[in-house]
Amino acid sequence: MTIAKFHGGCHQIGKSCVEINTKKSKILIDCGMDPSDNGLPDINDSDVDAVVVSHAHLDHCGAIPYFNFKKIFCNPPTADLMYNVWKDTVSLSKTYKEEDIKKSMDVIKTVNYREEKQVTSDIKMKMYDAGHILGSSSLYLDIDGKKLLYTGDINEIETRTLRAADTDFDEIDTIIIESTYGSPLDIKPARKVLEKQLIDEISETIDNGGKVIIPVFAVGRSQEIIVVINNYMKSGALKEVPIYINGSLTHTTGMYMGYSDWLNPKIKNAIENRINPFGNLIKGGDEVFSREPCIIISTSGMVQGGPVLQYLSLLKNPRNKIILTGYQAEGTIGRSLEEGATEVKPFKRAIPVNGKVVKIEFSAHADYNSLLRFMKKIPQPDKAIVMHGERYQALSLAMTIWKTLKIPALAPSIGSVLPLFD
Ligand SMILES: [Zn+2]
Ligand SMILES: [Zn+2]
Asked: Which residues, listed in sequence order, are joined to residue 419 by a DSSP beta bridge?
């Protein structure tokens, strides 16, 4: 019997990690770090045969260098992006060291989308495009003849940079699905509406002579937002002001250019015709604090660590604005801003928040309707396991899948041990 043990990403977003035990082997799907407290999954790495990684976000790959793994499977862009995530982690949290990164890099085996790979003697894998960030994958595993689909983080619609998530799988016995926006309350406005909101908010601040801070993750949403802003500036609908970004963003945005084959066809064509879809980006230095209006796009997305912290002092000035563009986990500065904090304390001294705080969910995740559409497009599984959502979202999606699609569904807690197939 194949057993799944859930080490993280249960009733939470953070440290996603599922252990799969078969008669002959043991693998991990993802091995993430909790972005709010740098928490790691509680696992014994000695008998793990391999780790398969869905994508290069901290909550899916951040813990890997802390452990000693024999083999790590991911695709080429994920390997490159992951290296960046690990480097940032070394400088921010000191959970592991530079040598640990090297040791992990040495055991990476890369796989392309739709290429079949033997992971262990009784587990085969194919990666499919998950539409969430560059290189993001849904993992389709053949475990001794039974089929598991681990969606990873998915986006079911095409975006400015990526294709929509693939749904053309062969039969599925069990699905493990994300539930970031798994409750019926999580229905998001259309992309176009969000883009318009973002541009209106930026224009308002720039017209008042202020600065806009946009905290982002280095990968994914940041490139989407940069493309949107660049398009509006080029068309004249948004006034041209300097756009400052930080080092790791320069690097990852450059990587998007290098992996144009992995992007949606429109942007791939632009890049191949030598049109830079990201426009003119400037590496931020002291000039960011000058009096001129500007846009600052900086990591980290939940305002928990990263260069964005040094720009929070700008919020003393009521003319300036911070635009949160994604999910803010509990316990992060981003979340406290979202909940109306009157001051924040990125370093020793508290900073009063006088500037406007706006949230525009420019998410790289499928919303509730999108998750249901995804479930209806794929071959119907016999069983659904819901992860990667806060408690209410995870339980809501499990309930919806059971009620509307008649597929038995559950949202395991951390430490749960379940038979993977019926
Ligand atoms: Zn992700
Ligand atoms: Zn995630």
From this structure: 3
End-to-end CA distance of the chain: 9
Q: Answer yes or no: CATH 3.40.50.10890 is held by domain 191-359.
A: yes
Minimum-distance ligand to the CA of 34?
2
pLDDT category at 330 given cuts 50, 70, 90 is confident
Q: How far is the CA of 60 from the centre of ligand 2 (A)?
A: 6
Ligand 2 centroid distance, CA of 45 (Å): 22
The mean per-residue pLDDT over the stretch 325-339 comes to: 92
State which amino acid sits at residue 326. Answer: G
Any residues with CB less than 8 A from the CB of 308 and at least 6 apart, and which?
A: 213, 215, 246, 296, 298, 299, 300
Architecture of domain 3-185+364-419: 4-Layer Sandwich (3.60)
The residue assigned the tokens 């009157």 is: 342
Whole-angstrom Cα distance, residue 213 to residue 255? 23
CA 404 to centroid of ligand 1, rounded, Å: 26
The residues spanned by each domain of the chain are 3-185+364-419, 191-359
pLDDT category at 173 given cuts 50, 70, 90 is very high
pLDDT greater than 90 at residue 419: yes
